[in-house]
Amino acid sequence: xxxxxxxxxxxxxxxxxxxxxxxxxxxxxxxxxxxxxxxxxxxxxxxxxxxxxxxxxxxxxxxxxxxxxxxxxxxxxxxx
Length: 80
Hints:
Distance between the termini: 24 Å
Order of helices and strands: HHEE
Number of strands: 2
Low-confidence stretches: none
Strand order of the largest sheet: 1-2
Helix content: 40-55%
Mean pLDDT: 91
Strand content: 5-15%
Shape: rod-shaped
Structural class: alpha+beta
């Protein structure tokens, strides 16, 4: 997204030639992109999920719960 924004700003002739104003514009474009895109990216995936014991490390394959039963599914939280 920042690359496209900078491309279109360059085509429109809106990018300053001086180093400091150009750096400020770069940082502004990157900040705006993160401000808009990051919440959308994070919200695309569920907060909580589950994964089969067969899909993770070997050490978790034959773990038992507090009742002595083998655990076949693990649940996780993204932690946000």
